[in-house]
Amino acid sequence: MTCTRMEQLIPLYVEGDLEADTASAVGGHVKGCAGCRALVAEYEASQGWLHSYTPPDFNEAVLDSVRLGVMRELQEQSARPSFFERLALLLTPRRIVAATAAALMIIAAFLLYNVNHNSNAGLKRAERAFVQPREEKPAPPFVIPPHDVIAPDGGVKQVNHPHRKKPATPYLADKNAHRSPRPNKRELHNDTVLANDNRTSVPDESAKPQEMLRIELQTADPNIRIIWLAPKGADSQELKPMIETR
Amino acid sequence: MMEAQEEQAMTVEVAETLQMINGAGLSKTAVERTEALLIERARSGDHAAFEQLMICHQRKVIAMAWRMLGNEDDARDAAQEAFIKVYKYLSSYKPDQDFGGWLYRIVVNVCHDHGRKRSQHDRHLSFEDERAAHHLDRVASNENIEAAAIQSQQRGLIEEALKTLSKKERAALVLRDLEGLPTEEVAQILGSSQATVRSQIATARAKIKQFRDRVLRQKTRG
User: Fold this and answer.
1) Facing residues of A212 across strands?
2) Vertex B96: Cα angle to B93 and B100 (nearest 5)
3) What chain B residue is nearest to A46 in terms of C-alpha separation?
4) Confidence check: pLDDT of A27 > 90
5) What is the pTM assigned to this prediction?
6) How far is CA A184 from CA A151, B81, B140, in A?
7) Which own/partner contact pairs does B14-19 have at CB distance under 8 Å and 24+ positions apart?
């Protein structure tokens, strides 16, 4: 046991807070060490000074005031309704009925909104299905007003038409129109052979540029379209249809 | 109606028995049994029984609060608050627990909360304050007045010394050295281990000694 260790143990030794064996060891060291013996005396004086810290003698008036204050508070607390009692006071039958009706209305409104929303979504889906024609059904024939035409000189002439209903057909946008046409997948019958092999894509350079009248006719078969091209004012004998197949 | 009258009569009988016990110094077991009876009745909402319980413990509670807080006003407020909490949490008190220790725990916690709330300007009770508070009513002679003045001054110094301690150190020191409770009970009240309490007490005693040494050195120089 060193004196440094003694300094830590002596505060507990003076009031008997050490274990028996430790207390015995400290006691033995203190007997042989003057410095530690002086330290023990100082701590005993300090503890004696601390023990003189006695509270004032509280008279009966002080004690009564504390007690009465407590009893008053307890009386008030017991008189005060509890949370559930206050809630019960607030919830009169009329208020309960009104709150229930309001809640039911909100729930009904929410359900109606949900039903409406779902039915609208279903209707829209049905409309889309109805509007989009199935591929196997043939499109009804209609006349496509003239739009972009290929002039005899090979150039593409745009004819402004206010009621353009379909976008430019693929063959009009064909940039290789001046070349020989692509082979069609379907063979043409003899009686529908084009009168003019050049069609519109092979211009006659020697021909004088003329305004062409163009009539397109879509057959019941979506893959077959009939196109009439004729110079304006041409004889009807010269008008021959051109059949395009895809 | 009959039941209420019977209950009231029983409460009065219990209170009278308790007063007899306190005055006659009967056995601890008898006191504990009577106290248990009062606690049981207070738990069921008997305010009169709770008041009797307060009478048994109020001096101890106020003294403890005074040692923790250092002045009478705070001690009174803390004691009042502690008793209100005792009543509120009486349902959680287990009969096999030591009621005194359980009560001390509540007082310590209330004093800690009170210490946090109170203002920076802490004052100890000066001699003049004590005279104004009629604590010196019993003092008759001049010698006694002088002794009371010295005692008041000592109290002020010790209060200053206790302020150098942390909250936990002060609580451990007050319970062990001033209330005289064993270390085991102090540890239970504070919710710490005995080793922790011993360490806190050792530190607290060292700080008190250092403060006292400084005061004595100043007196010697002055």
Assistant:
1) A231
2) 65
3) B209
4) yes
5) 0.58
6) 23, 103, 136
7) B14/B38, B14/B41, B14/B49, B14/B52, B15/B48, B15/B52, B18/B52, B18/B56
* B58 with A57: Cβ contact below 8 A: no
Contact between B196 and B207 under an 8 Å Cβ cutoff? The reply is no
Interval A131-168: pLDDT, tens: 655 566 666 666 556 566 565 665 666 565 544 455 54
Coil/strand/helix, residue A242: strand
User: How many other β-carbons are positioned within 10 Å of the β-carbon of residue B141?
Assistant: 8
> What three-state secondary structure class fits A167?
coil
Q: Which of B58, B183, B213 sits opposite A63 (nearest CB)?
A: B58
- ipTM for the predicted complex: 0.78
pLDDT at A174 over 60: no
**Phi, psi angle pair for B64, to nearest 5°:** -60, -45
Interface probe, candidates B205, B215, B219, chain A, greatest A C-beta count within 10 A: B205
CB distance B106 to B85 below 8 Å: yes
Determine the Cα–Cα distance for residues A128 and A120; give it in Å rounded to an integer. 12
Confidence of residue B30 (pLDDT cuts 50, 70, 90): confident
From the list A8, A191, A37, the residue with the least C-alpha distance to B201 is: A8
User: Model confidence at A196, in pLDDT bands (50, 70, 90)?
Assistant: very low
State the nearest Cα–Cα gap between B30 and chain A, in angstroms.
25
Given a cut of 80, whether residue A66 has pLDDT beyond it is: yes
**Residue A150 tokens, joined:** 């290929």
Q: What does the block give as tokens for A217?
A: 């006719």
| Structure tokens belonging to residue A87 | 């809630």
